[in-house]
Specification:
It contains 8 helices and 18 strands. By secondary structure, it is α+β, with helices and mostly antiparallel strands. It is elongated.
Length: 298
């Protein structure tokens, strides 16, 4: 069992309760992560040692690390969500509460029927549900500069970060060129989606792209052609009423994508994956690894 002790909705009492519940299945080893990438190292070691499953407790960032350690192996991921958004856990049907999800994971461990899900790849690094280049990645970078465990404050920082990024980029020339299957699109931002629905705001589903899914063998894209205060004012409203991003006149969509290349038009490209800022890159390539991760859930 791997746990991120800094996960936003994981108290010491909750972690002990989860450990005790899982220990009823047999001896269990608890290891807490203490640095970035630690969950990847631990999961890779568990897979190399032939573990059938690894229980991972944490948020989407921890699950992303675990997926990178388990990708392509026979070892299954048994996730217990304990973060702020828990998008991946919701996507595979788990409860948002870590104690309730523990009951689901215990049931899955008692009758293991692993599900094979696709992984998106950005420059070879795996992601579970979404990755972005440009505008959205800049928003994530700004948010990470103001880390907080208070959900309302975190949401406020998201809005402030989005507004600041939009003001900085508004009316400017395109910053990237997206090339996919002979088609080229210039824009200021790109979202690549691997899961069918994203739940950044509680249980409310946000559909950025069309045709995405964890078992489609492909990715879906939304290219933000331009950024401005008008876009920032109207695009979120469409998402809140259940429409996807590509219904907006400033956004173009691509579906059933297996590989896409992004080249910079104005400096290095900022990239994020599953809500974690990855840094700046001179070029970016996306692809998909069908059925690369085995997952245990309800």
């Amino acid at each position: 069992m791997i746990a991120n002790p800094r996960a936003m909705s994981l108290s010491g009492e909750a972690l002990e309760a989860i450990r005790l519940a899982l220990s009823e299945l047999g001896p269990i080893e608890l290891v807490e992560t203490d640095r970035r990438g630690h969950a990847t190292e631990l999961c890779r070691e568990a897979a190399a040692n032939g573990a059938e499953a690894v229980v991972v407790i944490g948020g989407d960032g921890t699950m992303n690390e675990a997926a990178n350690g388990l990708a392509g192996s026979r070892t299954a991921l048994a996730p217990i969500p304990a973060g702020c958004t828990n998008v991946f856990a919701r996507a595979i049907g788990l409860a948002d509460d870590p104690i309730a999800a523990t009951d689901q994971v215990i049931a899955a461990l008692c009758d293991p029927r692993p599900r094979a899900v696709d992984l998106g790849l950005v420059n070879g690094r795996a992601f579970l549900f979404t990755s972005a280049v440009g505008f959205s990645a800049e928003v994530i970078r700004r948010m990470h500069a103001h880390v907080t465990h208070r959900p309302l404050v975190r949401q406020s920082w998201f809005a402030v970060s989005a507004l600041a990024a939009a003001i900085e980029l508004r009316g400017g020339a395109p910053t990237m060129r997206v090339s996919c299957e002979g088609r080229k699109l210039d824009g200021a931002g790109l979202v690549v989606q691997n899961a069918s629905a994203l739940t950044y705001m509680g249980s409310r589903e946000v559909g950025l792209c069309e045709g995405a899914g964890l078992d489609t063998g492909s990715l879906s894209l939304a290219v933000l052609r331009r950024v401005g205060l008008g876009t920032l004012a109207t695009l979120p409203a469409r998402l809140m009423i259940g429409r996807n991003a590509i219904s907006h006149p400033a956004v173009s969509g691509l579906t059933d994508v297996v590989q896409v290349e992004i080249e910079p038009l104005a400096g290095p490209l900022q990239v994020e994956a599953d809500g974690e800022y990855l840094g700046e890159f001179e070029s970016v390539t996306y692809s998909v690894a069908p059925g690369a991760l085995r997952v245990l859930s309800c």
